[in-house]
Specification:
The protein is mainly α and 112 residues long. The chain is built from four helices and two strands; from the N terminus they run ααββαα.
Length: 112
C-alpha cells in the first residue's frame, strides 16, 4: 500500500512540474514570428513531457514518462531495451506532426 501512495504522489509531483515547464515553453515561444515553428516547438515539448510508457520491474507494472524509461533502459540494459520508451515517443511525435500538418493545411485553405 505504501508503494501505491508513493507512486501516486510521485505522478502528481511530476505532472505539476511538467505543466509548469510546458507553461514556460508557451511563454518563451509566445513572441516567435513563425507560427509553424512555434507550434512544432510546443508540440515537441508536450510530447516529451507528457508521453507515458509502460515499464515492468520484477513483475510489477508501472507507467513512467517515456523519456525517463528510454534513458533508464539505455543506461542499464542497452539500446534494444530503450525502445520500450522510444516507440511511444515516436508514435506521439508522428501523431502530433500529423495534427499540426492538418491544422496548417486547414488554416492555409481558410486564408485563401
Amino acid at each position: 500500500m505504501a508503494y501505491y501512495l508513493t507512486y501516486q504522489y510521485t505522478w502528481i509531483a511530476y505532472l505539476a512540474a511538467a505543466v509548469g515547464m510546458y507553461y514556460c515553453v508557451v511563454k518563451f515561444t509566445k513572441y516567435w514570428k513563425s507560427v509553424d515553428l512555434r507550434n512544432y516547438s510546443r508540440m515537441v515539448s508536450a510530447v516529451i513531457l507528457f508521453t507515458p510508457a509502460s515499464h515492468t520491474i520484477e513483475g510489477t507494472f508501472s507507467l513512467a514518462p517515456a523519456f525517463i524509461v528510454s534513458l533508464g533502459e539505455l543506461l542499464t540494459n542497452g539500446s534494444q531495451a530503450a525502445m520500450q520508451g522510444v516507440v511511444p515517443l515516436m508514435l506521439a511525435l508522428f501523431l502530433g506532426a500529423l495534427i499540426l500538418t492538418v491544422q496548417a493545411f486547414w488554416s492555409s485553405k481558410k486564408a485563401s
